[in-house]
Amino acid sequence: MEYTMLSLKSILFDAEEKQEQEQNHDLRKWLKELQNTFYQIEDTMDEFKWDFEQEGTGKKVQAPFSCSHPISAHKFIRFRKMMRLRNHLDTLAARMYEFHLTEKHPDSIGRRKTAHSFLSTTEVSVRHMKPSWQLQYTLTDAPMTYDGDRYAELLTTFKSIHGFFLIVGEAGIGKSTLAKFLYNDKEVVEQYLSRFWVCVKEGFDTQRLIEEVYSVVACKEICNDLTKKQLHLKVQHLLKGTSFLLVIQDLSTTNLDDSSTLMELLGMGNKNSKILVTTQSEETAGALGLGIVYASEKQSEKQSTQNSDDKNQKVSTVFKLERLSEDKSSKLFKRYAFRDRQEVNNEEFTGIEDQILQKCKGVPLAIKCMGSLLSSKTRIAEWKNIKDKLWAQKEENDGILHILRLCYNQMPSHLKPCFLHCAQLPDRILSSNDVIQLWMAHGLLHSPEENHASMKNIGEKYFMELWSRCFVQEIEEHGLGYWFKLHPLIQKLAHVLAQEQSEGLVGTKPVTEIKSLAFHVRDMVPPNASLPGMCILKYNSLRVLHLGNANIEEIPNAIGTLKSLRYLDLHGNKNIKRLPNSICNLQSLQTLILESCSELKELPTDIRNLISLKYLWITTKELYLHKNGVGTMTSLQFLAIGGCKNLKILFERPECLADLETLMIYNCNTLKSLPNEMIHLKSLQNLVIWGCKQLTLTLENAEFRLQRFTIRELPGVDELPEWLDGSIETLRNLQIINCPITINVGRLQAFTGVETAKIVGSVKVKGAAPGYGFQYWNTVIRGSSGSGSRKYY
Length: 793
What we know:
Blueprint: H1 2-10, H2 12-22, H3 25-55, H4 70-95, H5 148-160, E1 163-168, H6 175-184, H7 186-191, E2 194-199, H8 206-217, H9 228-239, E3 244-249, H10 259-268, E4 274-279, H11 283-287, E5 291-294, H12 297-300, H13 303-306, E6 315-320, H14 326-337, H15 347-360, H16 364-374, H17 380-392, H18 401-409, H19 416-420, E7 430-431, H20 432-441, H21 452-468, E8 473-477, E9 482-485, H22 488-501, E10 523-524, H23 533-538, E11 544-546, E12 567-569, E13 591-594, E14 615-618, E15 624-625, E16 638-642, E17 649-651, E18 662-666, E19 686-690, E20 708-712, E21 733-737, E22 742-744, H24 745-749, E23 756-760, E24 764-766, E25 779-783, E26 790-792
Parallel strand pairs: 1-4, 1-6, 2-3, 3-4, 5-6, 10-11, 11-12, 12-13, 13-14, 14-16, 15-17, 16-18, 18-19, 19-20, 20-21, 21-23, 22-24
Antiparallel strand pairs: 7-9, 8-9, 23-25, 25-26
Helix pairs in contact: 2-3, 3-4, 8-9, 14-16, 15-17, 20-21
């Protein structure tokens, strides 16, 4: 059966290409059935693994082949099931010759380079790790849509007006990009004490807008028991007299239910406060009850016909984004298409480029995606092939969606399911680290080596490949990965494709066979806070279970029956006091998130039995982590411990954590020291610590080879630990934020491998030579990898 599966997987790339090109419904049906069979085989193997672990518990059992022996009976049933699956797989394999499929291998991964700037995103918190710094742009960094003079004029206008400022333009034209440059401009940052960014989506209402503003200003999640009036009073108290900038992304007349709330919100700050709105229609201004004043002379010609007769009517300044000119379209295209190599000056290439840009119609997103697609293709025949497919593509109502669909069709087969999984992701700032864990849980990562480290690396390469194709954007490094977001059109494409892939699956099968809502993404998000055991038992093929912020008080024992579960997220359930020990029966569980479960008294007694667990994020009221608990989990590779108000001792016997690569500790205010046994963490690469008021970093005889080291808001730390010098050659990312540390510049310069460093706040750097740009305040250092030189500013 293993040989058959390998043979079938080798022709999947050709099968997917053919069914997309030929629209062969029989082939499409065959592919779905094959994918479903693969999943059933994996689930059955999980059941065999379950039986094996049960036999290894040491319980006295009956004769192995007794009919009354429960384990043997189950094994016999599963053996017959596996035989049926093998026969069915052989039948499917025999049919592959009907479709004339040939063996193909996907393009190599990770050979593309990115041509993106790190666009800092918002201050929206994703768990407790939020983007903590904003890039400060100069006029020379302005988006390609604008030359320096034009951007300077727009920036001056933006700073001078108050009230509402609207950026109007079609989807993919660059509204959010421009908004980010204004939002993060150095002068704008200095002008506004508070800045908030809220993304509007379908089903959005102004009440939720106020909730999101409150959560950002107050730096905590909204309480569900607050009334609308109470919430407004809290926000008003927080914003009273302040100068704030609020960005509302993708507002439209369809999701604007109450314009008066926005007016009230604007009035909560002082007279200099501003609300910047990105929208596809000027009608949004009318829906807000505002008149229009255009921000440029060219557009102001319309103003005379649209001025309101009511002289007392409030107005909004509108800047309408136009499509790129031919010259700027060509420059943007070349920037992406030739980023891996020298630009080709060839009439044939130029002719093909012109025809491609003709279809892109000056829309930056379309140009970047097409340029990225062609960046790995060096032959004229390859360019011509893509151009022909583009011109053969049927245009859709949603502007450039057909262009994005073509770019998706050209993806290697291993990337497609990872992208389709994006249809299930929330519309907010995301962490690549979290998404890779989900890909892994769904079995979307493929590597010849069946170990977690290899899978994690493959996941990172997949993510970088999607980035290089411009399918993820708004990238910002956070030390353990990247913050990113999906463009609304990209997410819409994922939804459309996922719906097409799921035709005939959703709603047509009993719940016991449900694998996914889209392309075998086996998720369940409960509609309410209750979680009866019988509800769980119905979904016995689940791999991912999201129960975050569900206000759940108790997890049923039945959760231990989900044999295929790989990913369990319980974060934010502040009423959970205990977890059933049956959760430790989940032998396939790879990821467990208990972050912000602030009332959790203790971790399950037998947590060490989670033999597959690689990723653990916990909040607990325990005084110490039990010696037979976390410290004995030999497979653990990521451990985050945060918000533990009573924690005094991290863990005992950490020498068992030989594979631990990442350790994150935050907001543990009673923790005074790191256990000296940490010296046994030989695989540790990333150490992140913040918000621990009493913690010191003293360790004796510690020798780490860290790649990333971050400390933030540690008032008890007044110098860099000596053991950090063991990472002089390996350290790549260094962040020291708001720690009362004095550092000698010579010691900093000894870390020759550092590519990115950030030193901000109450940190003093001594001995800096003139011209290096070191300051005693807000010092940022960035290195240039591979050049052997460093740039300081």
